[in-house]
Amino acid sequence: MVLMKNYAISLGFRGKPYDNIIKAWQILEKNTNIKYVSTLTHEPHINIIIGSTKNIEKIFKILKKIKIKKFKIKSPGLGILANNEPNLYIRWEQNDELLKIVNLINKRTSYLFHKIEKFTTNSLWIPRTTVAWKDFDYYELNLIFRKVNFLFTNHYAVINYIYLIDYTKTEIITHKIRLK
Length: 180
Known about the structure:
Layout (H helix, E strand, L loop, with lengths): L4 E11 H17 L3 H5 L4 E9 L2 H10 L5 E5 L1 E5 L5 E5 L4 H14 L5 E2 L11 E6 L7 H7 L7 E12 L5 E7 L2
Antiparallel strand pairs: 1-2, 1-8, 2-6, 3-8, 4-5, 5-7, 8-9
């Protein structure tokens, strides 16, 4: 019997934003003990679909058949989602290439998820990569911004992977598809 697990379909990237996120995680852990995201997530990524499924192998096979080429994406810098637990993240430009790929992946795979998190549906989806969440408060933002001010600048990254990430207990990349 295949168990229901929590999975994300995500885009992996390399470039200056990737390097800066890793550097920011190290600085935040060393200087402020903010490390929830960096210890949970070992690879910065952009989530497309998050939900529960029993069909991850079928999803993997479908994604492998889709012909997606690697592409550049621009980051205009940091953003923050204002919730009870603030979410500090890298924003990504919603260019045509990204939206086309996101829509294609949603169309081909969303029916294989039992439940999809509402913030990854098309109308609420924001392309972002979380830098810090759960272990800081609003009063710490000035200090955080001073420590990681290099994240406020524009940079480009190359989207070069699709990841399938099991986040049932902790985040584990179980499948990787390299984009050509």
